[in-house]
Design goal:
This protein has five helices and eleven strands. The chain is of the alpha/beta class and 229 residues long. The protein has a single domain, classed as Spore Coat Polysaccharide Biosynthesis Protein SpsA, Chain A. A hairpin with a 2-residue loop joins strand 2 and strand 3. Helix 1 packs across helix 4. The protein is globular and about 60 Å long.
Length: 229
């Protein structure tokens, strides 16, 4: 069974310029994703999909492969993760005569990642015969008390039936942790998520989706907390 780790790292981050190779406690942040993929020992190859030569050089220096530069079409703001994955798989098949049974797409700005998480995801993918598996984290506040804000200044509870419910009585709701996705290649269709997807539950201190400078600071704080414990 051949397995490939795909780390998508384009150059066009606007809210945090150079985000994917920005220094995070002495290393480019992408190095953490590469190292976790190498350390878990599950992959025949760990590759980085990028449109940027500097990112490519840094990725190679930390042990990843960069067999080609990403196409212009899949390097803009509109390109989806799935489109990038399909481009990678097509390149390997067409140009390198390599096919894979499972892939794991690992985001490059995920410094809290570790190899044991990737192993847990793979074990669930295979033992449960799922199409895809990814980490989720519980919403920190009950979504059932969500509100809509109107231009008039008034607010409206979306689910007023839960207005007086105790928090502990409300159903838990989770969201994608934005860290990695294990997938069976044979079942890849039009979405990473299918009706046969599953997840592993992560603690809030184990994940941090980094989209802006505040997120970056939170990731630093969580990293310190974990490594000082």
């Amino acid at each position: 069974m051949a397995r490939l780790a795909i780390i998508p790292a384009r150059s066009g981050s606007k809210r945090i310029p150079g985000k994917n190779i920005k220094d995070f406690f002495g290393k480019p942040v992408i190095a953490y994703s590469i190292q976790a993929a190498l350390d878990c020992g599950l992959f025949d190859e760990v590759m980085v999909s990028t449109d940027d030569l500097k990112i490519a050089d840094i990725a190679k220096a930390h042990g990843a492969q960069v067999p080609f530069l990403r196409s212009e079409k899949n390097s803009d703001d509109q390109a989806t993760t799935l489109e990038v994955i399909k481009e990678v798989l097509n390149y390997y098949k067409t140009n390198l005569n390599k096919s894979f049974d499972q892939i794991c797409c690992i985001y490059p700005a995920a410094p809290l990642i570790n190899a044991s998480q990737l192993k847990k995801g793979f074990e669930k993918l295979t033992s449960g015969k799922f199409d895809s598996v990814f980490p989720v984290v519980e919403f920190s506040y009950p979504v059932w008390r969500g509100m809509e804000l109107y231009e008039t200044g008034k607010v409206n509870f979306i689910w007023p039936e839960f207005l007086n419910s105790r928090s502990q009585d409300l159903k838990k709701v989770f969201h994608d942790a934005g860290q990695w996705y294990w997938m069976n290649v044979a079942t890849i269709g039009n979405s990473v998520f299918t009706d046969n997807s599953s997840s592993i539950i992560m603690m809030e201190e184990e994940v941090q989706d980094i989209d802006n400078p505040s997120d970056w600071k939170l990731a630093e704080l969580k990293y310190r907390m974990r490594n000082e414990a």
